[in-house]
Amino acid sequence: MPNPNGRATLGFRLRSLRRPTYPPLFPSATPSSRFTLHGKCNDVVRREYHQVPSFFNSLTNFSQTRIWGVGIQRKCYGSIAGLVQRNPGFSKLNDDDVRCFEAILGAKNVVQDEDKLVASNADWMHKYKGSSKLLLQPRTTDQVSQILKYCNSRCLAVVPQGGNTGLVGGSVPVFDEVIVSLSSMNKIISFDKVSGILVCEAGCILENIMSFLDNEGFIMPLDLGAKGSCQIGGNVSTNAGGLRLVRYGSLHGNVLGVEAVLANGTVLDMLKTLRKDNTGYDLKHLFIGSEGSLGIVTKVSILTPPKLSSVNVAFLACKDYSSCQKLLQEAKRKLGEILSAFEFLDGQSMNLVLNHLDGARNPLPTLHDYYVLIETTGSDESSDKQKLEAFLLGSMENELISDGVLAQDINQASSFWHLREGISEALMRAGAVYKYDLSIPVEHLYNIVEEMRSRLGNTANVIGYGHLGDGNLHLNISTPHYDDKILSQIEPFVYEWTSKHRGSISAEHGLGLMKANEIFYSKSRETVQLMASIKNLLDPNHILNPYKVLPHSLIS
Amino acid sequence: MTMKIMVAIKRVVDYAVKIRVKPDKTGVVTQNVKMSMNPFCEIALEEALRIRESAAAASEVVAVTIGPSHSVDTLRTGLAMGADRGIHVDSAASLYPLSVAKILRKLVQIENPSLLILGKQAIDDDCNQTGQMLAGLLNWPQGTFASKVVLDKEKQVATVDREVDDGIETVCLNLPAVITTDLRLNQPRYATLPNIMKAKSKPIKKFTPEELNVEIKSDLEIVQVTEPPKRKAGIIVSSVDELIDKLKHEANVI
Ligand SMILES: Cc1cc2nc3c(=O)[nH]c(=O)nc-3n(C[C@H](O)[C@H](O)[C@H](O)COP(=O)(O)OP(=O)(O)OC[C@H]3O[C@@H](n4cnc5c(N)ncnc54)[C@H](O)[C@@H]3O)c2cc1C
């Protein structure tokens, strides 16, 4: 009989609560053929594809082809993945290539074993699947540089891969691209306790950095549900937002420097550790959020805030969406400098989590239609708690909150977070999921969920949650199986709606493969064209993460 | 007949906090460290509340804490969970199980509860003695490491399942009695906002050990507190042959 004794056993109970364990990358469930690239969509592909111009497109052709880009995605409602054809301009991998990579990396770091490639070929959601035959695991920037230089000279397409937790099909090959995994570049290079500036390699796993910093008395300015697997290089490349953005701002503010390797192997050393540096164009920003399409990020320097001792978490119920919104306004005023997260989930999200996530338990005695999680972080336990309690009790009197609980210890706080952070995982377990990550002005934010619900009726479970504090809604549509009919009900409606409300079709996940052709819903033609010019300048052969981020019509 | 339950709760370093030993090895760092209710005490209080709620088997739950002034925060948590009132015995001195048991005995004499529920141990000093000593001092029956408690109000008997090495042992205790709780007894509730609000007006009675005529002293002296030795990092072997080689030549186990 196990006899749980004190701290050690309890610690285990906490850990099992706090860390969502993601389903293995490759369970027996096979995704529908629609989402594998050689599926039944091919007919559609052929019909539409003749309009798309050929690979080495000169800059001057852009304005012409751009129009096609819009045309295509308006006409074809199918998954973007179904629309892509392998770019014939790319070479096919041969034995000489492999030998060359082995010479650069050593045979151990050149992986051809199919079983080992399975996990790297499929994304976290099992929605996108490539057929790469080669995974490279460089250990140094110089090796990355040699790899890219070689690939560029041979016109071999490359997909940079971090923790492979991306949600838009950006981190896996579309066809046979060579996968360059940063996992082996996982060293922390330096940490300055005075300034809080951390310099590390791109492959460091976010959670490992967090525990390193915890020992030093600091925290990462970002936190997200995928922390156990995602890498800082991936976070930077997707400009990940996450749970602390409302307090610490985006990575464009917190990343102080980047070292990146361009497609031709040039190493750009922009690894500054200065907060202020106005010398010319701040090019590191090109690599923050460009999803591996402009270069491979190999090192990062990042400003980390000190860890404050007093953290409080409340889990609240609201009677309607407008109360959630008013509560946010109030929280910003009344909690001010200690507010560190304001997360939102609707009743449907909660039900999903309670039904599909191990260890999930409703902290409130009854079910409600809307929930809000508020976290405060400050330096004085008793005054912070007083402030939060006063705010919560006041909001209860004003009827902005209909019920709520306040965590009394770290375990309770973790279990509240578990509910919010576990939604992605619960969705995965519930079946097929269509994910939309939208920025919408807060006052309209929930309307899309309701409209979607009435559009789809009872064919799908439409849930809404997200970072309300940042105006970021995660609209997720959960169905037992992937179904073209449902998809055609969702897209392009969701993009059109978002565009009409001047929102963004990608608040934080990026465009990847999923939304490369939808960029015009959020960016003007002129802007996208400049992006394409930058792409052409930095990666003229377009070997870096092809078919992703920019419309295929521009970069084909 | 009305029945009162008394629950002892302790403020400890939150168990999710990574413990750091003070450089001078006299104890662990508690400054700027999150303090919370001892998890076993939370379970004890939850059990008392459930007994009170189930067919009104008890009329009142009194939460008691002994410790420095900040312990009142923990007491408020107990009140917010649902205890009816609190008692705080204010003492900044280091407390050992025997002193705590003696203080609790005095409070039992004042309050006359029919049932005392305590955690089986506090996760700071891991003593696991207070409940047993208290039962001894009061000459009451004890059911320690409870994983299930059933109360018969008519017969004034508590039936307690205990987790022991070879299974579950069931004991019957005549009330008044002392019960200490194990991890699996229940899952404690959260403090809801309405209850946090109510807790603010619940009474907390204050005592000092002197007022209770208990002298705080200990026959123990802490010589040194040290961290457990660090485990050496593991290695990943690349083949079965390498593993066998290491087991043979480095670990010398095969
Ligand atoms: C459970 C869960 C919760 C999530 N929550 C959030 C959230 O709250 N906020 C949020 O913003 N996102 C969230 N995400 C998605 C988020 O984008 C990723 O988790 C993370 O930022 C990607 O890191 P990664 O290392 O897994 O990158 P990958 O998935 O491997 O790659 C993502 C993209 O970046 C590129 N890339 C990766 N590494 C490099 C590099 N070193 N250099 C150049 N390009 C590179 C890839 O090619 C790809 O295009 C979540 C994902 C999951 C599964």
UniProtKB/TrEMBL annotation, chain A:
MF terms (GO), sorted A to Z: (R)-2-hydroxyglutarate dehydrogenase activity; metal ion binding
Keywords: FAD, Flavoprotein, Metal-binding, Mitochondrion, Oxidoreductase, Transit peptide, Zinc
Enzymatic reactions: (R)-2-hydroxyglutarate + A = 2-oxoglutarate + AH2; (R)-malate + A = oxaloacetate + AH2
Function (record text): Catalyzes the oxidation of D-2-hydroxyglutarate (D-2-HG) to alpha-ketoglutarate. Also catalyzes the oxidation of other D-2-hydroxyacids, such as D-malate (D-MAL) and D-lactate (D-LAC). Exhibits high activities towards D-2-HG and D-MAL but a very weak activity towards D-LAC.
SUPFAM superfamilies: FAD-binding/transporter-associated domain-like (SSF56176), FAD-linked oxidases, C-terminal domain (SSF55103)
Cellular component, GO annotation: mitochondrion
PANTHER family: D-2-HYDROXYGLUTARATE DEHYDROGENASE, MITOCHONDRIAL
Highest taxon in the source lineage: Eukaryota
FAD-binding PCMH-type domain mapped to chain residues: 128-307
Mitochondrion found in the keyword field: yes
Broad class of enzyme this protein falls into: oxidoreductase
Annotated EC: 1.1.99.39
Family designation: Belongs to the FAD-binding oxidoreductase/transferase type 4 family.
The organism of origin for this protein: Flemingia macrophylla
Cofactor(s) listed: FAD
Biological classification of the source: Eukaryota, Viridiplantae, Streptophyta, Embryophyta, Tracheophyta
Entry's localization field: Mitochondrion
GO biological process, one term: malate metabolic process
Alphabetical list of Pfam families matching this protein: FAD-oxidase_C, FAD_binding_4
Protein's name in the database: D-2-hydroxyglutarate dehydrogenase, mitochondrial
From TrEMBL, chain B:
Keyword Glycoprotein: no
Entry-linked CDD domains: ETF_beta
InterPro entries, sorted: ET-Flavoprotein_bsu_CS (IPR000049), ETF_a/b_N (IPR014730), ETF_b (IPR012255), ETF_beta_N (IPR033948), Rossmann-like_a/b/a_fold (IPR014729)
Any Gene Ontology CC annotation: mitochondrial matrix
Residue stretches making up the Electron transfer flavoprotein alpha/beta-subunit N-terminal domain: 25-216
Biological-process GO terms, alphabetical: carboxylic acid catabolic process
Cited SMART domains: ETF
Pfam families cross-referenced by the UniProt entry: ETF (PF01012)
Main location: mitochondrion
Protein origin, superkingdom: Eukaryota
Location(s) in or outside the cell: Mitochondrion matrix
UniProt keyword terms in alphabetical order: Electron transport, Mitochondrion, Transport
Function: The electron transfer flavoprotein serves as a specific electron acceptor for several dehydrogenases, including five acyl-CoA dehydrogenases, glutaryl-CoA and sarcosine dehydrogenase. It transfers the electrons to the main mitochondrial respiratory chain via ETF-ubiquinone oxidoreductase (ETF dehydrogenase).
Family: Belongs to the ETF beta-subunit/FixA family.
The protein, known as: Electron transfer flavoprotein subunit beta
The organism of origin for this protein: Flemingia macrophylla
